[in-house]
Amino acid sequence: MPIIDSTSAEARGLKGLHLYHFAMSNCSQKARFCLEEKGLQWTSHPVDLLNNQHMTPEFVAINPKGLVPVLVHDGVVVIESSDIIDYVDQHFPNPPLRPSEPAERKRMYRWLKLWDETQISLKTLSHNTILRGRAAPMRADMERLEKLVKNDELIEFMREFTSADGLSRNRIERATSWIEQMLGELDAHLGQHQWLAGDAFSLADLAWSIDIHRFELIKFPMEKYRAMRAWYRGIEQRPGFQRMVLDYEAQFRKSIEAQKSGAA
Ligand SMILES: N[C@@H](CCC(=O)N[C@@H](CS)C(=O)NCC(=O)O)C(=O)O
Questions:
Q1: pTM for the whole thing?
Q2: How far is the centre of ligand 1, averaged over its atoms, from the C-alpha of 193 (Å)?
Q3: Segments forming the whole domain that contains residue 24
Q4: CA of residue 67 to ligand 1 center, whole Å
Q5: 151 Cβ partners below 8 Å, 6+ apart?
Q6: Do residues 108 and 13 share a domain?
Q7: Is the residue at 145 inside a domain?
Q8: How far apart are CA 214 and CA 210, in angstroms?
Q9: Residue 85 to residue 202: CA distance in whole angstroms
């Protein structure tokens, strides 16, 4: 569970629950959805990734990897979205978002691990589609990223993304085939079971529904995964998903439109 020794006195001094997050980031959506499912009060610290607000000395002091989300709970700093939702579920057990039966719990963690392993593929395809516009502002800030952030994977990815040729064909093909494999596994499981682990909605369903939402956004072909789509449609109706994913996205789009018309 990555609880980190943040050097940020500001973060260490925070009381209650605080989330550093970005409206459109799938990892942030996962953390927000979890907090909402628990009915918890939390303080929002928006970090606009499109304007590189995560590349500031203040934010890097909180998370040296330069990534959102970051949860701070009474001064305890937790990074990595799967660890954040696990932390939240352990510290605020009601309603429970994990099965009590050990084999089912193990299955939930397996799905979370697969979710973590899928992040680079999701990021690849997102940057190759809806986030293409990020290349130019990022290119101008590469030196700052390399100086500030302790995250070789992010730096390597951003170097390739901002290069003249963009993300390589090989990287995109690997990402596509990984996601197809994951969707196939999800669909096969959900053809036989109502939920990913145990007999109720759990952290595994919460996490994966967020990625399915992203795959829809980037128009990844998913017609053939019928059981998976039916499961996703059910989760999409949950009030927490509506508020913490869809409403946030709508609000964010509105603010972008407002900025554009203000600049015009
Ligand atoms: N494994 C991390 C990944 C976090 C991550 O990649 N966050 C993205 C947003 S979803 C980010 O902050 N990216 C910064 C960037 O792209 O420069 C987690 O699950 O929290």
A1: 0.96
A2: 30
A3: 3-91
A4: 5
A5: 64, 65, 66, 67
A6: no
A7: no
A8: 7
A9: 10
